Pyruvate flavodoxin/ferredoxin oxidoreductase domain protein (Aciduliprofundum boonei), 395 residues
Amino acid sequence: MKMILTGNESAAWGARLSKPKVIAAYPITPQTSIIETIAAFIANGEMDARYIRVESEHSAMAACIAAQNTGVRTYTATSAHGLALMHEVLMWASGARLPIVMSVVNRAMAPPWSVWTDQLDTMAERDSGWIQVYAQNNQEVLDSIIMSYKIAEKHNILLPTMVIEDAFILSHTSEGVDIPEQKKVDDFLGEYIPAFKLDPDEPGGFGSLIMPEGPYMEFRYKMALAMDEARNEIKKVVEEYNENFNRNYSPFIEEYRTEDADAVMVVLGTIGSTAKDVVDKMREKGKKVGVARVRYFRPFPIDEIRALAKKTSMIGVVDRSYSFGPGADLYAETKSVLYGHTTIPVKNYVMGLGGRDITPQVLEKVFNDMLAITKEGVVDREVEWVGLHGDERWS
């Protein structure tokens, strides 16, 4: 079935098709229409689930944790400060090895107050133990939610997942979306079989106090192993999904015209769509550039980034977030995995914060800057903030 859906409606349909039994969420712009749509599904009898009205995002995640512990699928959604308020219980969900799926609509953090897109909110949670997948369009939002349940629920994984979409660019923008048949989704996901659950007939302790000599460190080691193992499961599940639903997703990185590129731009989210159009226009001018869109930020695509570096002479990493370390988040991870594996120049471009437009014109200037670095073999400055007011270089 084809429908015209916003990104948020696509997220709601992804949840509906996956059949979680408990939804707990608190409204926050620009996420609110996800849970409004789900509430309507439940009220109309189109979705068999319990909707829990809570007083905060912290409580929403706590309710999902409690429900998931009883052995049912759960779902929630949030954004920006709501995600930040969840921080404590995000750690609990991953540490308790609960395969909760959550939609996050990327939104800038205040002050100054903003409701527009920026990826700092999810980047601030990159070490919380959650799998993170960044969607490029509304179809990918829906499909990623379904795939995320199958990946997260594997007993060798058991890690919660964030399915991430850009505020307004996806959340409130309508596109044609293919809605899979419910039976096909049911067959793909199968029945949820929890690895463990609360059972009055078999009482046990969960999350109890552990002394320093106890297995706390071993628990964290097992989480790290599970995140590594998730790479294999992601590959398997994405391939299976492509075959069953006629999709064409790459597991970790979607590459576009990188096979002979002199310079490749690495991006997250919706920037990839604009960048591909710019690549086509620049190729018409004889400029060999390409783009690589990272789908999964956690687990990070280590092997794929290293393989990408072997195809090109320069990598430019675009971040829609910032960090107070040596470059922004995607750049820092990319540079880290390339250390000792390549000598090609790598540069960070920070742009689009607070929803500022990332236009084709700006991206073309960035590509030209990358090509200049390719010729010179030297990065003029490691981190470049693109599009600041008064900066004529990028205007």
User: Anything to note?
Assistant: The chain has a mean pLDDT of 97. The chain has two domains: 2-245, 253-385.
